[in-house]
């Protein structure tokens, strides 16, 4: 069956500027494989319905640069819209839905575009028929151009489904069309880090505290003085409502202003973003109390899915993931332990967070495990370290 003619518009404002170039590259890589009659890209901008060029009767829209529409998903939405069932608008399902009726958990967790492709294929094979949408909401959709003409000209593209519904246009959800979207990491509390703060700790420094979501968890553990360091201005302002002190800037620029000593210093997925993580660890060592510890989490660059892709000649930067384009340093268990040792620490405890291989990838994982001397951490996605100084630094 031939694919009907359609126009494509890709646009939207990213949530995090540092990840934006990587998000756009990945999104463009997928959508440029779609055979659209007319393609429009508006990176960093959210157009209105009056700004959609082209004259094809069907239009595919992705107005969120962090919502990844694979080519087969885009084609599926267009075919569903052209099916003759009388719908004016078709929405996909997603792990981060904009409406509960469009929620669909992936069949397994994944860390690479290869894994996403496999999850999309699995969902497509078990999706089922499209169903009417009761309260449509999504920045990704396929729509008839005649439906766009009904809407106010100043309707922003990410609000089209809601506007279409309010005008009585029929919408549907395709449960077999899966779109991946990464959640807002800066709003996620780090219970795993808070749980490793010593029970007696009363003064805590949170390096890279984001919006301060971990603050209430630390308070619940008896922390009395909570200090954060955050370079992003908007996040720092949000964290200031939950922390006693917020220092806006990079660690090396604000470290002299810190009022230590601290019983614990947190680096929640921060060290991999630093040009010199050893320098950061040395700097905070001088601000630790006699029994103070550093608690850090870092992604594992030796996860099986990354190695599997490397063997196939791929290494894809993926926002908000193990492969984030903002990561300047990569770690395995050994390199993390070496980092702490070289910075004057002893790792007291090293825990792991697993991201197991899905059943369809079991054979590939087994091949990697069969390599002599293969790592024990092939299914580890993240390391959680608690480290104590081996010597003190004069201030």
Number of helices: 13
Architecture of the largest domain, CATH level 2? 3-Layer(aba) Sandwich
Ends distance: 73 Å
Order of helix and strand elements from N to C terminus:
EHEEEHEHEEHHEHEHEHEHEHEHHEHE
Task: Explain the layout of strands and helices.
Layout lengths: L5 E7 L7 H12 L6 E6 L14 E5 L4 E2 L2 H11 L7 E6 L18 H13 L5 E2 L7 E5 H6 L9 H7 L4 E11 L9 H4 L8 E5 L7 H6 L4 E6 L2 H7 L5 E4 L2 H4 L7 E7 L8 H9 L2 E12 L4 H8 L21 H10 L2 E10 L7 H8 L10 E10 L6
Parallel strand pairs: 1-2, 1-3, 5-8, 9-10, 9-12, 10-11, 12-13
Antiparallel strand pairs: 3-7, 4-8, 5-7, 6-8, 13-15, 14-15
3D structure, described in words:
The chain is α/β, with parallel strands linked by helices. It folds into 2 domains: 6-181, Spore Coat Polysaccharide Biosynthesis Protein SpsA, Chain A; 185-389, Rossmann fold (3-Layer(aba) Sandwich). It has 13 helices and 15 strands. The strands form 2 sheets. Strands 1, 2, 3, 4, 5, 6, 7 and 8 form an 8-stranded mixed beta sheet that branches. Strands 11-10-9-12-13-15-14 form a 7-stranded mixed beta sheet, with helices on both faces. Helix 10 (277-285) links the parallel strand 12 (262-268) and strand 13 (288-299). The longest helix is centred in the first third of the chain and has 13 residues, at 113-125. The chain is globular. The model has no long low-confidence stretch (mean pLDDT 93).
